[in-house]
Specification:
With 85 residues, this protein is an alpha+beta fold. It has 2 helices and 5 strands.
Length: 85
């Protein structure tokens, strides 16, 4: 019985040690949505900054761009004629 209590206590302690707090997460407001019209078809993409990477989601498909900043991508999209907010 003592082994079971010790094992349960160690399992519980491990769960607390590996659980992160919600306050540790970065602010989710670092996303931009850009809309570009190509040949009469409007294409909308969402760009979200994730540390040193930017995650692009277009039509439900996500791709990670490494080593670029969100500001650079938004500037390039706006230079191509897209509207971003």
């Amino acid at each position: 019985m003592n082994f079971f209590k010790l094992f349960s206590f160690m399992l519980l302690l491990s769960a607390f040690a590996l659980t992160s707090c919600g306050d540790d997460d970065e602010d989710a407001s670092s996303c931009q949505t850009c809309e570009l019209e190509l040949l009469g078809v409007s294409v909308s993409s969402e760009y979200c900054e994730d540390g040193d990477n930017v995650i692009v989601t277009t039509s439900g498909v996500s791709e990670t761009l490494e080593g670029v900043s969100l500001d650079d991508i938004v500037a390039a999209q706006e230079a191509a004629g897209a509207t971003c907010n």
